[in-house]
Amino acid sequence: MTSRYEVHHPNFFNQYTAITTVDADTVVVTALAGNRIFITDLIVQSNQTAALGSWTLTDAASVTMLGPLEIVDQVLFVAHFKTPLVNQTRNSAVHFDKTAGEDDWEVYIAGYYAP
């Protein structure tokens, strides 16, 4: 008999961030002491006014995890990582670095924390 409940990692996270400021660097997943961040799913949407923008996922030390990637206004970037995207630095948040001056992005990230 199968369970009707989904089984998640005990340190599962599901984070949504609306970025409405002109800063170039926003924390989208906070750090958890002693752990790294494993990203399994990522959705990025730009509602910006420019025709084209770019973004990069980095750790707190500005080490690139993914990107830079360009995105056109109103087009979704959707990824499910069969092998998780890993923040190799323990105790380090994940940042969303975006085109400077563009201030209307939505970022959804799911995954888990593990040593």
Short description:
By secondary structure, the protein is mostly beta strands. It has strands spanning 12-19, 25-29, 36-46, 52-59, 64-72, 76-87, 94-98, 105-114.
Topology:
Blueprint: E1 12-19, E2 25-29, E3 36-46, E4 52-59, E5 64-72, E6 76-87, E7 94-98, E8 105-114
Question: What do these coordinates show?
Answer:
- It is a single chain.
- By secondary structure, the chain is mainly beta.
- It has one domain (12-104).
- It is built from no helices and eight strands.
- The strands form two sheets. The chain has a four-stranded antiparallel β-sheet with strand order 1-8-3-6, with no helix packed on it. A four-stranded antiparallel β-sheet has the order 2-7-4-5, with no helix packed on it.
Give the key terms.
globular, 115 residues, mainly beta, four-stranded antiparallel beta sheet, single chain, 8 strands
User: What is the global morphology?
Assistant: globular
Would you identify the regions where 5 or more consecutive residues have pLDDT less than 50?
A: none
Distance from N terminus to C terminus (CA atoms, Å) equals 32 Å
Mean pLDDT: 86
Q: How many separate domains?
A: 1
Structural class: mainly beta
Specify Rg, calculated over alpha carbons: 15 Å
The H-and-E topology, N to C, reads as: EEEEEEEE
Q: Work out the strand percent.
A: over 45%
Number of helices: 0
* Sheet with the most strands, sense and barrel status: 4 strands, antiparallel
**Roughly how much helix do the residues carry, as a percent range?**
under 10%
Strand arrangement across the biggest beta sheet = 1-8-3-6
Give the number of DSSP strands. 8
